[in-house]
Design goal:
Elements lengths: L8 H30 L4 E2 L5 E4 L2 E4 H4 L5 E6 L11 H8 L5 H4 L3 E7 L3 H11 L5 E4 L3 H5 L13 E7 L5 E7 L9 H6 L35
Parallel strand pairs: 4-5, 5-6
Antiparallel strand pairs: 1-8, 2-3, 2-6, 4-7, 7-8
Pfam families: DUF899
InterPro entries: DUF899_thioredox, Thioredoxin-like_sf
C-alpha cells in the first residue's frame, strides 16, 4: 500500500461522495446482470444421478428437500497425501445459516467425489451442519462443466437448479473461479479495508488461506501443496 493521502473532513467527504456514485453504478450494473442471469435458458436434467449421504442414497431431486430451488457447492476432493482444500473450506465457512435460504424456497448442499468415511470426520472437525453428499462417478461434475479433464482435482464451484411445475429438474447455471468471489464474504469484507486482500506479489494469491483451525501453521495453505 502506498502512503495514505491525509485530508480534512470536507475533502474526505467530497471524495467519498464521488466514489459513492461509482459504487452505485456498479450496484445497478450487478442488479442488471443478476436479472439477465435469471432469464438465461435452462435445460432439463433427464439423467439419473445418485449420491451417497450419511443416511444412504439420494437422487438429485431428493437433494431439493421439497423446495423449488437447489444450489450445489462442488467441493474439491483432496489429492492423495493432501488435506481438504482450504479455499473450498473458506467458502463453506462463509455460507452462514441455511434458514435464510430455506425461507426463499432454496436448499443448498455440498457435493464431492470423496467417500462419506472421509467427509463425516472432516465436517465434524469444521463444525458444519450443511448437507454433504458423495457423487457416484464423474458424470455430475462433467455434465455441469466443473470437470476440466486434467490431472487437477475437480474445479470448485456452484450450480443452480430449479424444479418446475411439472416436477422436472432444470439446470440453470454454474460458476467457478473468480465468478464465485461474490459468495465469499471474507473477501468482501477485506475489499472494504485500506489493505484489501493483501495478495499483491504472491505467486499463489490463495496461499495465505488456511482451514479455520490451522491459522498459524505455515505449511497448511494452498489446495495443491
Amino acid at each position: 500500500m502506498t502512503d495514505a493521502k491525509i485530508v480534512d473532513r470536507a475533502d474526505w467527504y467530497a471524495a467519498r461522495r464521488a466514489f459513492l456514485e461509482r459504487e452505485k453504478e456498479v450496484t445497478r450494473a450487478r442488479d442488471a446482470l443478476n436479472a439477465e442471469r435469471r432469464e438465461l435458458p435452462m435445460m432439463v436434467v433427464d439423467k439419473e444421478y445418485v449420491f451417497e449421504g450419511p443416511d444412504g442414497e439420494r437422487t438429485l431431486p431428493e437433494l431439493f428437500e421439497g423446495r423449488r430451488q437447489l444450489l450445489t457447492y462442488h467441493f474439491m476432493w483432496p489429492l492423495e497425501g493432501h488435506d481438504w482444500c482450504p479455499v473450498c473450506s473458506l467458502f463453506i465457512d462463509n455460507i452462514g445459516h441455511l434458514a435464510h435460504l430455506h425461507a426463499r424456497d432454496t436448499s443448498l448442499a455440498i457435493v464431492c467425489a470423496a467417500p462419506q468415511s472421509d467427509i463425516v470426520p472432516f465436517k465434524r472437525r469444521m463444525g458444519w451442519d450443511i448437507p454433504w453428499y458423495t457423487t457416484r462417478g464423474d458424470d455430475f461434475y462433467r455434465d455441469f462443466t466443473l470437470d476440466v479433464g486434467t490431472d487437477e482435482p475437480e474445479l470448485p464451484g456452484v450450480s443452480a437448479f430449479l424444479r418446475d411445475d411439472d416436477g422436472r429438474v432444470l439446470y440453470a447455471y454454474s460458476t467457478h473461479g473468480r465468478g464465485s468471489d461474490i459468495l465469499n464474504n471474507t473477501y468482501n469484507y477485506l475489499d472494504l479495508t485500506p489493505l484489501g486482500r493483501q495478495e499483491e506479489g504472491m505467486a499463489d494469491t490463495m496461499g495465505w488461506i488456511r482451514h479455520h483451525d490451522r491459522y498459524g501453521d505455515a505449511t497448511a495453505g494452498s489446495c495443491h501443496g
